[in-house]
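Section handout, structural biology tutorial.
Before the tutorial, make sure you can parse a SMILES string by hand: atoms, branches in parentheses, ring closures as digits. In the record below the ligand is NAP, and the chain has 285 residues. In the tutorial you will relate the predicted structure tokens back to the input. Do not try to memorize them.
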Amino acid sequence: MTARLLPGGPVADAVLADLAPRIEALVAAGHRPGLGTILVGDDSASAGYIRMKMEKATALGLTSPHVHLPQDATQADLLAVVREFNAAGDVDAVLIQHPTPPQIDFDAALLELDPDKDVDGLHPVNMGRLALGMPGPVPCTPAGIEALLAHHEIPVSGRHVVILGRGTTLGRPLALLLSQKRPSANAAVTVVHTGVPDWPEYTRRADVVIAAVGVPGILRPEHLTPGVTVVGGGVRYEGKRLLPDVDESCAEVAGAITPRVGGVGPTTIAMLFRNAVEAAERRAA
Ligand SMILES: NC(=O)c1ccc[n+]([C@@H]2O[C@H](COP(=O)([O-])OP(=O)(O)OC[C@H]3O[C@@H](n4cnc5c(N)ncnc54)[C@H](OP(=O)(O)O)[C@@H]3O)[C@@H](O)[C@H]2O)c1
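Predicted structure of the complex:
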């Protein structure tokens, strides 16, 4: 069997197309959305991501004020920038690029951020809102995966979704999201991790398997039942080489699968802008 591909590009395009008139309406009302970005240090991959996000912000009609702190910046330097963005009237949403240099406590910086400006949806207040089903910014990769499955008409409601990984940016919030009582969620969600050594017993009984680990090639065909849907969220970079969790041979067993490149990534970026625009809409209201 060769799986149907589930590209993220068309999903991202649909999300961004929905945002365009909303951005226009905000601008017409005198509130151009602003996405502030903070980069600490010299990591070239991080600098590349920030540049790409700023260019996309400009293309969409958002302002993108940016602060680049040096590699030896202190925690106090970072907190000062976060507070500045919290207070800035023209900044609706803020991104603190991860990873940060070792002297920086990323979680402490996140805690300092105004939860309503937290574009990644990772502030404890927003994780709490997600757990309680309250409105607020939802972590971007989980939101992108839900949208990807809905866009490609992969049913989730009432079906068994197994998430491999319980990390804070992906597996854990995704489990909260897909178990919510909504038509595009409503799943029976199982989360497996290093504490479940026989996790293949679970993935083999799944309708949908989502890899959210960061261990290249961890998910293999023998862990799957024929026809299952496979979503690859976890990746590791070695230099510029992207190494996904999902071994390519899974496509021989799966019924549908995200492509090695251009799957979850584009949907994550689209959701970042959706969070930024929604933050602007809330502040403008
Ligand atoms: N595509 C995107 O845009 C995007 C965005 C965000 C994240 N990601 C990727 O998604 C992955 C997960 O991110 P995260 O921040 O949630 O990661 P994380 O916090 O590092 O969590 C990784 C999870 O994988 C589990 N795990 C590790 N090795 C395992 C093994 N051998 N068997 C079973 N489970 C194992 C860990 O289990 P324990 O809890 O037991 O340690 C943990 O729950 C990363 O690769 C990250 O790069 C991608």
